[in-house]
Amino acid sequence: MKRIILTGGGSAGHVTPNIALLPRLEELNYDVHYIGSYEGIEKDLIESFGIPYHGISSGKLRRYFSLKNFTDPFRVLRGMGEAKKLLEVLKPDIVFSKGGFVTVPVVHAAKRLKIPVIIHESDMTPGLANKLALSAATKVCCNFPETLELLPKEKAVLTGSPIRQELLSGDPVKARSFLGFRSKNPVILVAGGSLGSVAINNTIRAVLPKLLENYQVVHLCGKDKLDPNLKDLAGYAQFEYLKEELKDVFALTDIVISRAGANAICELLSLRKPNLLIPLPSKASRGDQLLNARSFEKQGFSMVLEEETLTDELLLETVNHLYENRKQYTDNMKSSDQQNSIDTIVDLIEEITN
Ligand SMILES: CC(=O)N[C@H]1[C@@H](OP(=O)(O)OP(=O)(O)OC[C@H]2O[C@@H](n3ccc(=O)[nH]c3=O)[C@H](O)[C@@H]2O)O[C@H](CO)[C@@H](O)[C@@H]1O
């Protein structure tokens, strides 16, 4: 039996693609283990799958001042020791890394122990963790054709992003009863990225009375971002994060308002959900969501509004326009040649471990 270690964490975008690979890896009888941080979102998301989870110490890349920036180097050093020890004991045939800071010590320890490593980059330009991991990687998978040029030729493979297949088989009737939605009004799903977005939450809540005149709204608002004043509002349901219920909610959803995280938008494309993207501004990130959003807009899959120029009126107008023209967007998405990423990646894993 071949053993694989999956790693990735920090935000759900670095974990859900690993989850998407699980059914196929289990079909092929892989013994799957996971390495993540002691308390990151990955621990919570992975534990319900019954896979052995191994925690290591991890730092975090902060774009703001924090005292933790001074203690993090020690945590990273400890993480390196822990990762090496784990790999020596587990002796995996391969490591698959979805990125995020916690993966850096894991892939470097693997290289030292001559264990092959595949890393996957979801965004158009490689994130810092993956840049640091590049030299240790046997192969680097990417999601956008544009990324190929930024990677070493002999390592780069265009695979797309693995999408959890169960998302495609939700039940709208279950969602309606779970959400307590009674009217026949169309449903808008609002998702501010896996950690939520204060800017999107505030904007949506400001226009909520107007939105609820014509729509019902499911709001994924992120940890600690529920608004208790809106708890009993008819036609509005808010959640910090949805796990297994997400597929049913997607099945009931007519249109989506979302951040432009790479996995989120690839899921919307697979599900053919007309969507309005409000990308994370470049001042708060390295600007990849803007690139993601503009690429999807150009292909006719998405409408895009930028956070800096967003007003209540513009949001309402755009939502109505999107809903009225939803068929056009769905048709455009049907003609996309999004590939079967799970098979491509698992074939690569098989090729390297055989
Ligand atoms: C703030 C930030 O740095 N964002 C980055 C982060 O986003 P983030 O972690 O938000 O990642 P994505 O938007 O790519 O993916 C979010 C994932 O969480 C899932 N989900 C979300 C909410 C929920 O309630 N339930 C649920 O299952 C989505 O279905 C999706 O699979 O990683 C992405 C992939 O590298 C980047 O493109 C984003 O720029």
What does this structure look like?
It contains 13 helices and 13 strands. The strands form 2 sheets. It has a 7-stranded parallel sheet with strand order 3-2-1-4-5-6-7, sandwiched between helices. Strands 10-9-8-11-12-13 form a 6-stranded parallel sheet, with helices on both faces. It is globular. It has 2 domains: 3-161 and 339-353, Rossmann fold, CATH 3.40.50.2000; 166-334, 3-Layer(aba) Sandwich (Rossmann fold), CATH 3.40.50.2000. The protein has helices at residues 16-27, 41-47, 68-90, 103-112, 128-133, 172-179, 198-214, 246-252, 262-271, 288-298, 312-324, 326-334, 341-353, and strands at 3-7, 31-37, 53-56, 94-97, 117-121, 139-142, 156-158, 187-191, 216-220, 236-239, 255-258, 275-277, 302-304. The longest helix has 23 residues, at 68-90. Uridine-diphosphate-N-acetylglucosamine is lined by residues 11-13, 16, 122-123, 191, 193-194, 220, 241-242, 246, 261-264, 267, 280, 285, 288-289.
